[in-house]
Each structure stands twice: as structure tokens, then as C-alpha cells.
Amino acid sequence: MQDQLPALPYDYAALEPHIDQRTLALHHGRHHAGYVARLNEALEPFPVLHMHSTLWLLLNPSKLPANIRTAVRNNAGGHYNHSLFWRAMAPAAGDEPQGAFADALARDFGDVAQFKKRFAEAGSRVFGCGWVWLARAKQDGALRIYSTTEHESPALEGNFPILVNDVWEHAYYLKHENRREDYLAGWWSVVNWHEAARRFAHSSTFGERRWSEDLGHPRLVA
Length: 222
Ligand code: MN
Hints:
The chain is mainly alpha-helical. The chain has helices spanning 21-43, 54-59, 69-87, 99-109, 112-125, 173-176, 180-187, 193-202, 208-215; strands spanning 130-136, 143-149, 160-166. The protein is built from nine helices and three strands, in the order αααααβββαααα. The site of manganese (II) ion has 7 residues, from α1.
């Protein structure tokens, strides 16, 4: 089965004014769709690889034909990261972390405000194209902030992604031009803390199968 572009869980205008309709339409309908199309194109001569999840493809480059490794790394990476990113946001989110997830943020960052400050700083420091993440570290289970370039992910080192923001220019340039900090500041208004808390609750079970089920669309299920 070929990869499919997952439907957005909200309308293109739903994150206005923080993320404008045109940006979201292009980002989902062309950028993410492009990664899916190019991933399918790379895998097309190797139907057996379609039996595996997107994350498996990313975690096992040595098991891929050498001539598609770069295409898979870039496009499965883009597909995986964007699939998480759409679900990290919700219309009129506006609330704050609660419960055990809020307690863990306080334990590892001091308080939620400190976490937000450090996350936004990390996002502003990504040079060129990349992503900023909150993930649960494989090593000790602590919540940590990670930055990645291109379509890399802390999941590739075994850390469980909890929350992610896309800081490629295509995510914000139409509205904010070069002002990435404005995008990062406004983004908190559309963060889906319920989804982050749900991922946190699941993060004690590490492993590709759990992650893939968590993403909730067919080609990402192991
Ligand atoms: Mn993007």
C-alpha cells in the first residue's frame, strides 16, 4: 500500500490568525504532499518495503537499497515529522499543560513558562531548515528539548517525541517573513496540549510499534 497524505484534523483556516490559511494550505497540500509523493516514487520499484512503517524505513537505512537511501531519509523524514506536527496543533487550543505532564515539565524545566522560553529559544537558533522538539529521552526518561536540521528527528536516536514545531521558512514566511521569533511566540496559541499530554502518557512504552500506532494512519502502522 502506498503512503497517503494524512487529512488535517482541522480546516486550513482553523489556526488563523497565528498560522494563516494560505500557509497551511501550501504547507500541507504541497510540501507534505510532495514528501509523500516522492517517498512513494522512491519505494515504487521495491514493493516489499511498503510492508514497513515510515519510522522503520528511517531507522533501518542499511536495509534499504543504496540508491534510495537519501530519498527515503529526506521524504520519509518529512512525512513522519509533518504527520506529528499537524497533530501537535489544534484550533482555539489556548489552554495550558495539566496533570502529570505539567508536573514533568516543572520537574525538568522549572515551570511551564521556563519550558516555553527554552523551546522558543531553541527554535530560533536552528540554522536554516529544521525542527524543534520536546521529547522524552531514551537514556533517563527526562523531558528534553532537541533541535534537528532538515527532516531529522530525535526519534531516530530512540527518544520519544512529545511536541514538535516546524521552523522551516515555508512554515511561516508568508505571514511573518524573516521574523521566526514572532511565529514561535504565536505558536503557543495553537499548541494542542491535550495531544502532548496523551503522547507523554504513552511515552513510557518505547518502541517503534507503539510510536507507529500512535501516529494513527495506515502506512505509519508497523
Ligand atoms: Mn514543513
